[in-house]
Amino acid sequence: MMNETIKLGNLKIDLGDLTEFILKAKKRCYAGNGKEERLSDGSKRLIFQERDFFYEDNYRGHYQAPGTELVRWQKSDGQGLWQMSYSGGMLPEFIGDEKLAIVTFEFLKKALSDKDAFLRGPMQFRNDSLSYTNELKGDIKRFKGSEEIIDRDNLDIIFSQDYIGEVIIPK
How many domains does the chain have? Predict the structure, then answer.
């Protein structure tokens, strides 16, 4: 865990505390089948709050579901501290295969819940038929990465997603 304090505007944030919160929030929200709220624009929102941090994951779509995760100070309209955006999903040739999508997204949730998951998932995760890989560059302060899920029986990439994020440093 990172042991560093960073100044974000008037706030001093311990990056270890922020990282710990983000990992907990992810495991309680999408990866943990948290309660989704459907918004009027059709997007879905999951939220988690603990101590001085407020987390929101907002995404839209199903087979391909771009979204944004945002951590704010204390409340839903508090100062932004950290943000990650992601985009991707099922590859085009698998869109419409609902049975495969269900299996893939349940597997993805397990990977994102793994004990070695960091800003997205672990570097590698597998079961009998699927394999998840994650390539991450950077750290909580500024990062980018990509993840894939491969059907191990026929070696098809069935899911691919890119992500990027960083702490938010105000003026």
Answer: 1
Instruction: Write out pLDDT tens, residues 18-67.
Output: 999 999 999 999 999 899 999 999 999 999 999 999 999 999 999 999 99
Using CA atoms, how far apart are residues 24 and 55, in angstroms rounded to an integer? 10
DSSP structural state of residue 114: S
**In this structure, how many other beta carbons lie within 10 angstroms of the beta carbon of residue 150?**
18
Interacting residues of 86 by C-beta distance below 8 A, sequence separation 6+: 59, 66, 67, 68, 69, 120, 161, 162, 163
CA-closest candidate to residue 87, choices 123, 120, 124, 48: 120
Q: Which domain holds residue 140?
A: 5-167
Residue linked to tokens 């100044």: 7
Residues 77-92 have pLDDT tens digits of 999 999 999 999 999 9
